[in-house]
Amino acid sequence: MARIPENPAIAVVGATGAVGEELLSLLESRGFAARSVRLFASERSRGRSLRVLGRDVPLEVLSPGCFDGVDLAFFCATGATSREWAPRAVAAGAWVVDKSSAFRMDPACALVIPEVNGDELDALRAPSIVAVPNCSTIIALMAVSPLHREAGVARMVASTYQAASGAGAAAMDELARQARDWAVGNPLDTAIFGRQYLFNLFSHNSAVGADGQNDEERKLVDETRRIWRDPSVQVSATCVRVPVLRAHSESINLTFRTPITEARAREVLAAAPGLRVVDDRAANRFPEPLEATGRDEVLVGRIRADLSQPEGMGLSLFVSGDQIRKGAALNGVQIAERLKSVPG
User: Fold this and answer.
1) What's the rounded Cα separation, in Å, for the pair 338 and 326?
2) Which one from 76, 148, 239, 248 is the annotated catalytic residue?
3) Which tens digits make up the pLDDT trace of 67-116?
4) Which of 89, 22, 9 lies closest to 50, judged by CA?
5) Would 4 be classed as within a structural domain?
6) Strand, coil or helix: 160
7) Is the CB of residue 262 less than 8 Å from the CB of residue 303?
8) pLDDT class for 344, splitting at 50, 70, 90?
9) Residue 337 structural domain
10) Residue 186 has pLDDT above 90, yes or no
């Protein structure tokens, strides 16, 4: 018997946000069977309905007992909401797939990218919280993990180029609005980031600690080590916001424990699930966020030897991946699909 029924009763918390909307679309397009659906959003959405899996579903507000009878709950809301309500959902008997940062470093909760460490799901038996990693971590490790399995990554240096989508629908709206206002000479609204976003880039807007690392950079370091089960791997990250609507990109430099040729790296990446190699040097065509937008796959290219390192010991890559899709919603749906398919 599968741990999640083939036709589960599901709930989606944060159904009206950018990730929640993407998740609902993916459930539809992937034919995710569910015998019932409950949708939760903020008080201002009460009274509205959304069309989900062929039915009109009213939007509700979280309340005591709201997860009774639910088999699977997707949380697409804030960390504060997840910390309060996800344990209640588990206590009511539901599996939780949480897309916030609330439980990513909790040793009691699995932290999973299905293509990378999906085997961790296979050992779970009782309803629990499964955390979706940070979007930058997912996009990086989709490309780097196959190479790590092949040659062992000793050090990874990642510079991220993060789109407005990572800050939510309001940030995407503000960037689009700034473009329209700039075109006609109107003052630019800067409510989200407190500065002009259009034609600009700046350090990621998460809090900066005493060590100079911001929260986004720290997540990439800590989550990589946890997912790979390797606290010795060295990770350095610089995370930057760029004026792109959707899909994050990353420049990644790797140092290996054992040699790997560029040709072998290309073979490994071409065969890896969830990746698409885009690497046409003659045409100067490599991963771009516009091409990654709306795709399930993470795009990888600019595959080349790092000439500053001994032969075979270093490579550089450039990746682009849809932050809302594979970086959040799709990864969560894939977790749920695996929980349904593996016998309990």
Assistant:
1) 15
2) 248
3) 999 999 999 999 999 999 999 999 999 999 999 999 999 999 999 999 99
4) 22
5) no
6) strand
7) yes
8) low
9) 9-133+328-341
10) yes
CA distance 251 to 144: 11
List CB contacts of 291: < 8 A, sequence separation 6 or more.
278, 299, 320
Strands 110-111 vs 153-162: parallel, antiparallel or unpaired:
unpaired
Among this protein's residues, is 204 annotated catalytic?
no
For residue 20 the two structure tokens come to 């929640």
Say yes or no: 161 and 125 in one domain.
no
Question: What is the mean predicted confidence (pLDDT) over 127-131?
Answer: 97
Query: What are the helix (H) ranges across the chain?
Result: 18-29, 79-91, 114-117, 119-122, 135-151, 169-184, 215-228, 262-271, 289-292, 330-341
Which among 135, 148, 204, 239 is annotated as catalytic? 135
Whether residues 71 and 143 share a domain: the answer is no
CATH number, domain at 216?
3.30.360.10
Residues 6+ apart with CB under 8 A from 245: 163, 164, 165, 172, 175, 176, 293
Q: What is the pTM of this model?
A: 0.95
Cα diameter, the chain: 63
What pLDDT, in 10s, does the model give residues 18-61?
999 999 999 999 999 999 999 999 998 888 999 999 999 999 99
Tokens, residue 264: 């072998």
Alpha carbon distances (Å) from 194 to 100, 188, 189, 197, 280:
24, 11, 9, 9, 39
Integer Cα distance of 143 and 63 in angstroms: 40
For residue 156, is it within any domain? yes
148 catalytic, yes or no? no
